[in-house]
Amino acid sequence: ETGVTQTPRHLVMGMTNKKSLKCEQHLGHNAMYWYKQSAKKPLELMFVYNFKEQTENNSVPSRFSPECPNSSHLFLHLHTLQPEDSALYLCASSQEGTSGSRTGELFFGEGSRLTVL
Amino acid sequence: GENVEQHPSTLSVQEGDSAVIKCTYSDSASNYFPWYKQELGKGPQLIIDIRSNVGEKKDQRIAVTLNKTAKHFSLHITETQPEDSAVYFCAATSGAGGTSYGKLTFGQGTILTVHP
Questions:
Q1: A110 touching chain B per CB within 8 A
Q2: Which of A43, A104, A111 faces B101 most closely, judged by CB atoms?
Q3: pLDDT at residue B88 greater than cutoff 60
Q4: Spatial separation of the C-alpha atoms in residues A54 and A17, rounded to whole Å
Q5: A56 contacts in chain B (CB < 8 Å)
Q6: What is the enclosing helix (H) or strand (E) of A36?
Q7: Alpha-carbon distance B61 to B50, whole Å?
Q8: Best residue in A43, A49, A113 to probe B by mutation, most B CBs within 10 Å?
Q9: Could you tell me if A4 and A23 are in contact, meaning their C-beta atoms sit under 8 angstroms apart?
Q10: What does the pLDDT look like over A42-98, one tens digit per residue?
Q11: Contact (CB<8Å) A104/B32
C-alpha cells in the first residue's frame, strides 16, 4: 500500500460518455498529480495541484478536466474522449516546500486502466 | 523543456549478474534524479534517488551515479534476483524556484528480466 488509492481500477467507456476517475491520498501531502502512461511512451505529466491550486496544465486537451476539492482528493473528469486516450492514468502525491530528504518523493497509486471504444 | 533518454529499452540478465541502466538529460538546471520500479499491475515505486550535490548513492544492492558535467546518471543493481524483474524508469526535475519536485520528466523505461 502506497497511501494513494485510485478508483476505479478499470474503466471502459464510449466516446460520448462522461465518467470520472478518483484519487485519494492518506499521506498528508500537499501536492497531487495526474500522469498518463501509454504503451511504449514515457509517463506524461498532465496536471499538478499544489495546496489545491492548479499550478500546471501540460497542454492537456479540454476533454480532460481535473478537480481538486481538498488536499486529499483529486478527480479527473472525462468527456467525449477519443480511442487514443486509452491508457493507464496514474495519480500521485508528494510533500513539497519542506526541507529533508523525503521532499518531493512521488507516491503513485496503482492507476486506472481506461479503454475508450 | 527537459528531455530524458533511457537505455536500454530491454535488459535480460542471469540471476546473480549485475544490471546497469543509463539515462541522459538535457536541462542543466535539473537537480533531482529519482529511479522508479514498476511491477505488473502496480504504479511506479521509488527505489532510489540522488540530488545534484552528490555523485553516488547506495542502498544495499542498488546504487545510482550522477555525472552532472556529462548530464547522465545510471542505476546499478548487483546480485540480481528474479524479483528484480520489472520496468525501471529514470526521471529528472529541477524542483527549483517554486517548481514542484514531483513535476518529473521520465525516461522511456527499461524492461528488466532476471532469469533464474
A1: yes
A2: A104
A3: yes
A4: 25
A5: 100, 103
A6: strand A31-37
A7: 15
A8: A43
A9: yes
A10: 899 999 888 767 777 778 999 999 999 998 999 999 999 999 999 999 999 988 765
A11: yes
- Cell numbers for A59, please give them: 497542454
Which of B45, B89, B102 has the CB atom closest to A31's CB atom? Answer: B102
B47-65 confidence digits (pLDDT tens): 999 988 889 999 999 999 9
HEC assignment per residue over chain B: CCCEEEECCEEEEECCCCEEEEEEECCCCCCEEEEEEECCCCCCEEEEEEECCCCEEEECCEEEEEECCCCEEEEEECCCCHHHCEEEEEEEECCCCCCCCCCCEECCCEEEEEEC
Cβ distance B102 to A109 less than 8 Å, yes or no, reads no
The backbone torsions φ and ψ at residue A84, rounded to the nearest 5 degrees and listed phi first, read -70, -5
Tell how strand A18-25 and strand A4-7 pair up: antiparallel
Question: Can you give the C-alpha Rg of chain B in angstroms?
Answer: 14
Q: Compute the distance between CA of residue A102 and CA of residue A77 in angstroms, rounded to an integer.
A: 30
CB pairs below 8 Å between A and B: how many? Answer: 69
